[in-house]
Amino acid sequence: MCAVKAPPSYGYAFVTAHRFLPSGPLTGRIRVPGDKSISHRALMFGALAVGRSRISGLLEGEDVLATAAALRAMGARIERSGDDWVVDGVGVGGLLQPEQALDMGNSGTSTRLLMGLVASHGITAAFTGDASLSKRPMGRVIDPLSTMGASFTPSPGGTLPLVMEGMQPAVPVTYRLPVASAQVKSAVLLAGLNTPGITTVLEPVPTRDHTERMLRGFGAELTVEEADGERIIRIHGPADLHPCDITVPGDPSSAAFFAVAASVVPGSDLVIENVGLNPTRDGIFRVLGQMGSDIEKLDEREVGGEPVADLRVRHAKLKGIKVDPAIAPSMIDEFPVLFVAAAMAEGTTVTSGLDELRVKESDRLFAMAAALMAAGVTLEEREDGLVITGSGGEPLRGTANARVATHLDHRIAMSMAVAGLASRHGVEIDDIEPIATSFPNFTALLDAAAS
Ligand SMILES: O=C(O)C1=C[C@@H](OP(=O)(O)O)[C@@H](O)[C@H](O)C1
Ligand SMILES: C=C(OP(=O)(O)O)C(=O)O
């Protein structure tokens, strides 16, 4: 443990550098926090229901808390109650105009989904975010929401900060997604909640389907059909949402860091409890399986309408593979840590079709290429993926003073923490503060599993 707090270069809060040292086996049982995507949606749909929803297992990460704060600013009551959270909704159409700018912090999901909600309410809202979020493209939601009637004043390049004016009643549209994005799909469907008529999203490449599953659970009239190889999702508005009790399963994106860590650190035998395994999210476990990992699903069950299991992960000799780009949407946030698994495998791993990684919290292809090279990994950065030559299970050989830059990206920080466990000298990360956006107890769990 070497944590050094220092003033940041980007202007607020603190940065905390941390060296993740080579580790002994990961063992025992751990439980990762609630799913981030489901937590955002539970708060939003609860806020639009008439009555009180109760949420257990909510992720208390900064991203989800930014969603909660924004919904409060628009009239919902959201409070922690013991271990649960309660949400008193305002009803679809009932969002109030926020008095101040909505601070979205680091969270793309909060921003794009809330823009969808505001689009069909007769209110004006300003959205701001941190240095990372302020670089991310919002044109992808501005385009369809404009055709529904909302108007926008974004910063140059279609980014935050921006001001938007919703339109009530908005106009129902049929929108074919030009990019495989659950955030864009959800923004249009959420705008459709308060739009009279049928709003349709055509989805050529399936993405995570929590919005569809959960909106139906809250009582929306939403149908999903498949035709000519695409999903057709229709929402009938205006919708009446009824309150729900929701149990949020563990986040597979968070579990992935521990699944890779236990796979690459010799002697590991770790159980990760309560992991959500929705087929639109479980690509990482399928790809690790193709690489020869030893991951067993125990006690498969359903939690909150989602498939869940405990995962027993044992150290295994991984081999490099060519990753099918078609699997990317079901593991889009897990590529940084997959690259670490590839760095420890025998042979070469080739990834492609990953252009979307360039517009996440950081350019994740660039950031991971630079970080892994600093950790001693041989790789090639291509336009749409990385080609990584694995160490064959040998600890990564970076120099003792190598330091990696996380670019305000929690997933780069956690992936390189895992690389540190499997390295000869450890890996120093310039700033671990962003980890709190999605996985506040990450280092505590790592210390517990590796002790
Ligand atoms: O809808 C969601 O909850 C999310 C969708 C994905 O983003 P895109 O829709 O931009 O791919 C993912 O990267 C993000 O962490 C969460
Ligand atoms: C991309 C991510 O989140 P968001 O888009 O919500 O910032 C992520 O959590 O990896």
Automatic annotation (TrEMBL):
Q: Name one Pfam family in it.
A: EPSP_synthase
Question: Annotated pathway, please?
Answer: Metabolic intermediate biosynthesis; chorismate biosynthesis; chorismate from D-erythrose 4-phosphate and phosphoenolpyruvate: step 6/7
Active site located where?
D333 (proton acceptor)
> According to the UniProt record, what class of enzyme is this?
transferase
State one molecular function term (GO).
Answer: 3-phosphoshikimate 1-carboxyvinyltransferase activity
Swiss-Prot/TrEMBL catalytic activity: 3-phosphoshikimate + phosphoenolpyruvate = 5-O-(1-carboxyvinyl)-3-phosphoshikimate + phosphate
What residues does the Enolpyruvate transferase domain cover? Answer: 23-443
Question: Which cell locations does it reside in?
Answer: Cytoplasm
Swiss-Prot/TrEMBL keywords? Amino-acid biosynthesis, Aromatic amino acid biosynthesis, Cytoplasm, Transferase
Binding of 3-phosphoshikimate, residues = K36, S37, R41, S181, Q183, D333, K360
Q: Does the keyword Transcription apply?
A: no
EC number(s)?
Answer: 2.5.1.19
Q: Where does phosphoenolpyruvate bind?
A: K36, G108, R136, Q183, R364, R411
> InterPro entries, from UniProt?
Enolpyruvate_Tfrase_dom (IPR001986), Enolpyruvate_Tfrase_sf (IPR036968), EPSP_synthase (IPR006264), EPSP_synthase_CS (IPR023193), RNA3'P_cycl/enolpyr_Trfase_a/b (IPR013792)
What assembly does the database describe for this protein?
Monomer.
NCBIfam families of this UniProt entry?
A: aroA
Q: Which family does it belong to?
A: Belongs to the EPSP synthase family.
Q: What does this protein do?
A: Catalyzes the transfer of the enolpyruvyl moiety of phosphoenolpyruvate (PEP) to the 5-hydroxyl of shikimate-3-phosphate (S3P) to produce enolpyruvyl shikimate-3-phosphate and inorganic phosphate.
- Return the protein name: 3-phosphoshikimate 1-carboxyvinyltransferase
